[in-house]
Amino acid sequence: MKRMTSLLALSGAVALALLGGRVLIAQDAGESKYTVQVPDGLGFAEFRGYESWQVVSVSQGNDLLKVIVANPAMIEAYKAGIPGNGQPFPDGARSAKFMWMPQKLAGVPFTAHVAGPLKHIDFMVKDSKRFAAIGGWGYAQFNYDPASDRFTPDGTGAGCGTVCHTIVKAHDYVFTEYSRR
After folding, report:
1. Which of 6, 65, 118, 130 is most buried when burial is the number of CB atoms within 10 A of its CB?
2. Looking at the DSSP assignment, which residues form a beta bridge with residue 68?
3. Which tens digit of pLDDT belongs to each residue from 117-129?
């Protein structure tokens, strides 16, 4: 009987260890995105908390559905009239753009598309010293692989958005206006 109790206790300990290991693996998989960086060092970790930032606007283009969100510093700047008032965004302003493949909403009597598989997340950060050579903004694109549930850097570095964003230099390199609500 003593041996059976010991075996049950050992089995329980192994089961708990395995369960605990799964929890640690799951937590690690969620945190691993924060170790990813584009080649010149702009990292996912610099945008921690982006999942709960306020929506700036939505758009559709290049066969993708997009939602642009911003941190509180950027939202306050938008509310103050930036960039329309000619003032630049403050250092520390950050935005993220989620891009999904559209997916037809099934079971409704009209055509509607919703966010399907995530393609990538793009980030912008205003740091006029660090990114002085590229208009004061650093950019990063992280591609998402649903099979591995991992993000990988686009590979082009913090200047990846500079060429496109130069056409809106008069708006401090920002395309998206704060949508009225």
Report:
1. 65
2. 57, 97
3. 999 999 999 999 9
pLDDT of residue 31: 66
CA distance 153 to 96: 14
Q: How many Å is the maximal CA-CA distance in the chain?
A: 82
Q: List the chain domain ranges.
A: 36-171
pLDDT tens, residue by residue, 101-117: 999 998 988 989 899 99
Q: Report pTM.
A: 0.79
24 pLDDT band, cuts 50/70/90, is: very low
At 49, phi and psi to the nearest 5?
95, -5
- CATH for the stretch 36-171: 3.50.70.20
DSSP string spanning 84-141? TTSPPPPTT-EEEEEEEEEEEPTT-SS--EEEEEEEEEEEEEE-TTTTGGGTTEEEEE
CB atoms within 10 A of CB 71: 19
